[in-house]
Design goal:
Chain lengths: 332, 261, 256
């Protein structure tokens, strides 16, 4: 898990290629020419992205709109040529070996459909299996499993155009998994879904990833997706990788303070000047206190400290939210 | 390994078979126009009983088959690929492990197959039932007609594929496609048989794929002279258009992949 | 509305192609007529100049009608997407709103082509010009456009009843355009009755052309019909309004 400059690239790439990495990129970059024929300007969409993703990982690929997420995904799936650097996916050159690569990866675009609009969902699956030349027995086994886990039996014979967005996305994810891809790329898979549909999809994807044979690369604006599915987060902004780290480590590094929420038995003013506490607020007429504390103390020590002074009815610790973390990151 | 293309043919058929009411409505349109067109041709033949080898029965057959083949060969309204290029959905198509042109041809053959049942057979039967009609005299004609109609679909597909692929460069291919629709309607012999055109126009049109679309299949059915040569011309156009289409797709997708546009 | 017009000019190459396609589309029907006259000298009892005159009247009327009410063909789309509900919520007439939703400038191509053909035909058909005939020649395309527009609105109302009404409506709209370009003498008695009385297409070009040419109807229809197109237009508009209102009421009634 490294993010580094492009220096000393090729030897390093060779070494990483031999290891069990599904995605290896080296100084990947992409410029676009925009504007009219007379006044062309060069716009950099992605620059110097060096990244590797090991087999079985689940990586959240985050960034604001226009940060370069989709451009990077297009380069990784072979539908866009990089203007700098190189990429290998499943050991293949994505652009030159696009069709071979297509057999080994699955891609879900939240805003584009790969299903046949006029046909029943089941027929889209059959076609998808045929296009990927999946042996019928394996196809059936895989499909049965997805139908069961995603609860799709009720609408398998419904034409895709009549499905709800949530039902359709379950279909999209299934279609992308039917040929047992090594890598599943999900570009905003939960966009527009209601809470229950999102949750169902997350549960399914986390089960798929937990078996270890499918690597997930996920872009999203929905941070709970990342919290549920990914242990590693890559944040990209203005075409550059800002952060590439574990989610827990990120929390510690950027969001710092956790909060102890205490509910005393009787209303009171919160105690002042406890060791490690950096900010104190009282709510609900003194029936709930929020004590923000840094890493010089632990939750256990702080609870003990408070319990020595007042009777506590209830207590819990709020982790810093990933939203707060992203806010910190994007504004830096 | 099993090939996906037969499956895609079936899917093309099924896709269109789901719109039965639309097919019925379209059939009504075909029949109304058939009546109007037949009336004009019959009025011409009231002046001279045989014009360029067409008598009344041949003219009725001509109009019935032409109206029927219209949806089979498909001159108008195929804009799907250009729309997908414009919206960017084409990346999904390019990201599949298939030959995109072959896949689209397979789907189009399936579509044409359904159109034969829903749109070609009824006007033929209606024409034969209501008016004088010219059936083939030898059974082999049916086989040649089938081959010719199939080649007509492939030629039409080849043209439509190229027109749609122009969206890789133009972005909006609707103007080009609309132009083809209006020009193709008359110059392919859909309204007036090409044999009625002046000599020079016939010679010029023979150098285009236009006669391959409707005129040749209908002439084969009517057992007019020169079936072998006509089929060869169709086959030549089919191969040439498919090859040019491949080159266009290669360059177009290359452009998309390199320029990101 | 001006923004809609400007947006059509945003892709000038595509717009030019569209416009040209419309011009050619209009002229290509003329090509068919001319091809027919390379084989015979008269069609349904009329010579080439006379048929071209009917075509010119019909084509100009069609172009104007298309410009004015062509948007009605989008009615099924408005119903499917629910946009019609938006129109119904506004305190304005539903039909005018629908018709003004988009003015397709490319349709000017058809009008232009029609006027050119009409000008040529008026000069060559050997018309004995009187003030009344000049007036008739100038008003006929407008009156014809009103008749065609009424037919189209009435035909497209079928979309309130049928999901795939567009195709059925097309057979009436484009069928009427095709049929009005030829003298009605080419059609059999059954089709002729439909064209004269059920769908009054014969009043768009055929009867006014007889008046311009000073010919009696070969089929023996009385001469006053030749000057009665404006009355027919009024009747057609009334009938279309009635049908449209019934359709809208049905739509609001079923709420689907």
């Amino acid at each position: 898990m490294t993010t580094s400059g492009a220096g000393g690239a090729s030897m390093d790439t060779e070494r990483r290629l031999r290891s069990d990495h599904v995605i290896v990129t080296e100084g990947l970059g992409r410029d676009f020419l925009v504007g009219s024929r007379l006044r062309r300007t060069r716009v950099t969409a992605v620059t110097d992205v060096t990244l590797d993703v090991a087999r079985g990982e689940a990586v959240g690929f985050l960034g604001p709109n226009g940060a370069g997420k989709s451009t990077t995904i297009k380069m990784l799936t072979g539908v866009l040529v990089p203007s700098a650097g190189s990429a290998r996916v499943c050991g293949l050159d994505p652009v030159r070996e696009r069709r071979t690569l297509a057999r080994r990866i699955g891609v879900v675009f939240g805003q584009r459909s790969q299903l046949w609009w006029d046909l029943p969902l089941a027929e889209s699956f059959a076609l998808h299996g045929a296009i990927h030349r999946v042996p019928p027995a394996r196809h059936r086994e895989r499909l049965d499993e997805c139908v069961e886990l995603l609860d799709m039996a009720a609408f398998l014979t419904t034409p895709v155009r009549q499905l709800s967005l949530g039902q359709r996305m379950r279909g999209e994810v299934t279609a992308a998994l039917l040929h047992t891809p090594e890598l599943l790329v999900l570009d905003e898979p939960t966009i527009g879904l209601d809470l229950a549909s999102k949750e169902r999809l997350r549960t399914f994807l986390s089960a798929v990833n937990a078996r270890g044979d499918v690597t997930l690369l996920l872009t999203t604006h929905d941070l709970p997706d990342v919290e549920r599915l990914c242990r590693r987060v890559v944040v990209i902004d203005r075409g550059r990788v800002l952060v590439d780290d574990g989610l827990d480590a990120l929390r510690r590094r950027f969001a710092g303070h956790r909060t102890l929420v205490v509910e005393p038995v009787t209303p009171a003013a919160p105690p002042a000047a406890l060791p490690g506490v950096v900010a104190v607020t009282a709510e609900a007429q003194g029936l709930r206190w929020r004590l923000e504390f840094d890493s010089t103390t632990t939750a256990a020590e702080l609870i003990a400290d408070v319990a020595r002074r007042v009777d506590i009815r209830d207590v819990h610790v709020d982790e810093p939210t990933i939203e707060a973390l992203m806010r910190t990151l994007y504004t830096r | 390994m099993l090939s996906p293309y037969p499956q895609l043919v079936r899917a093309g058929f099924r896709r269109h078979a789901t719109y039965r009411q639309a097919a019925l409505a379209g059939l009504t349109t075909n029949l109304v126009f058939g009546l109007l067109r037949a009336a004009v041709l019959v009025a011409v033949l009231a002046q001279r009983p045989v014009v360029a080898g067409y008598d009344v029965a041949a003219a009725i057959t001509y109009v019935s088959l032409g109206q029927g083949l219209l949806t089979v060969v498909l001159l108008w309204g195929d804009t799907e690929m250009s729309r997908r290029i414009r919206t960017g959905d084409v990346v999904v198509d390019l990201g599949r492990p298939w030959d995109l042109q072959a896949a689209m041809l397979a789907a189009d053959l399936g579509r044409a197959g359904f159109a034969v049942l829903a749109r070609l057979v009824p006007p033929m039967l209606f024409g034969a039932w209501a008016f004088p009609f010219r059936w083939p005299t030898v059974p082999a004609t049916w086989a040649w007609f089938a081959v010719s109609a199939l080649l007509a679909v492939v030629v039409s597909f080849g043209v439509r594929f190229l027109l749609n692929a122009s969206a890789f460069w133009l972005l909006d291919a609707r103007g080009v496609i609309g132009m083809w629709g209006v020009v193709g309607g008359v110059l392919s012999g859909l309204v007036v048989p090409l044999a009625w055109f002046p000599e020079w126009a016939q010679t010029a049109l023979a150098w285009t794929p236009l006669p391959s679309l409707f005129q040749i299949p209908i002439d084969v059915f009517l057992e007019r002279d020169g079936t072998a040569g006509a089929l060869a011309a169709q086959a030549g156009w089919a191969v040439a258009l498919l090859l040019v289409g491949r080159v266009a797709l290669h360059h177009g997708s290359r452009r998309l992949v390199v320029q990101g546009r | 509305m001006s923004s809609r017009i400007r947006s059509q000019l945003a892709y000038p190459a595509s717009f030019a192609l569209d416009l040209t396609a419309q011009v050619i589309g209009q002229c290509i029907e003329l090509v068919a007529i001319l091809v027919v006259f390379t084989q015979v000298s008269s069609l349904g009892g009329f010579d080439r100049h006379e048929v071209v005159l009917m075509y010119g009247l019909a084509a100009t009327a069609f172009g104007l009608a298309d410009l004015a009410v062509g948007q009605i063909q989008e009615l099924p789309t408005y119903i499917r997407t629910g946009e019609l509900d938006v129109l119904l919520l506004r305190p304005l007439g539903t039909l005018p709103q629908l018709l003004c939703a988009d003015v397709s400038l490319k349709r000017l191509g058809r009008v232009g082509a029609g006027v050119a053909v009409l000008g040529y035909a008026a000069a060559t058909a050997g018309i004995d010009w009187t003030p009344a005939r000049v007036l008739l020649a100038l008003t006929t395309p407008l009156v014809g456009a009103v008749i065609l527009a009424a037919i189209w609105v009435a035909a497209n109302t079928v979309s309130f009843w049928l999901v795939d009404g567009r195709e059925v409506a097309n057979s009436v709209t484009y069928g009427s355009s095709f049929s009005t370009s030829y003298p009605i003498t080419v059609y059999g008695p059954w089709l002729r009755r439909v064209l004269c009385f059920a769908v009054p297409g014969a009043f768009v070009a055929y009867f006014p052309a007889l008046a311009l040419l000073g010919r009696a109807d070969p089929l023996g229809f009385p001469d006053f019909l030749q000057w009665s197109s404006p009355l027919v237009a009024v009747g057609a508009v009334g009938a279309a309004a009635l049908i449209w209102r019934t359709g809208i009421r049905r739509y609001q009634g079923t709420g689907s």
